[in-house]
Amino acid sequence: MQCVETRLNKNSLLLALKRYSSAVNNMEQTILLPSLLRDVPSEDGENCEAAVNSMDLFEFYHLLKGIRNTVESGLVPHDDSKAKKNAVLHKSLEPLLEADPEVFFHFHLQGLFSVMGSLTKKAQNLTEKYLDIIGIDQ
Question: In Å, what is the CA distance from 10 to each residue of 7, 62, 89?
Fold first, then answer.
């Protein structure tokens, strides 16, 4: 019997989502005391949005878990303020949808792969940082 990863194409969206979910599950199993991550700044060398960079590792830990839950269980209704923002965004994207749906799909799929890869690396880095904090060498 083959492993799921060997049966899926390396560029499969399912594989990217599975890798992310596995990285977050590993992070969750490794980090027994998430409170140790409070007030520990994220030290990513990447150029991310200012809001993400201002988050401490504790907040980032919960963000990664929340995204994993959404990936695994699907979208759930958000509060009204987010629904209004999504409605405005959808209206602004309507002309693009009419242009060429296939190009639009590929654009978003490429973006999703990029985001999932980045989040997977962040979950792995957060796990390594926690292990450094508690003094366990890998």
Answer: 9, 28, 32
Burial class (CB in 10 A: 0-12, 13-18, 19+), 49: exposed
> What are the start-end ranges of the H helices in 31-100?
50-53, 57-73, 80-99
C-alpha 129/C-alpha 50 separation (Å) is 21
Cα–Cα distance measured from residue 93 to residue 100, given in angstroms and rounded to the nearest whole number: 12
Going by the DSSP 8-state scheme, the letter that residue 8 receives in this structure is S
pLDDT, tens digit, for every residue of 24-70? 999 999 999 999 999 999 876 554 555 455 889 999 999 999 999 98
The reported pTM is 0.74
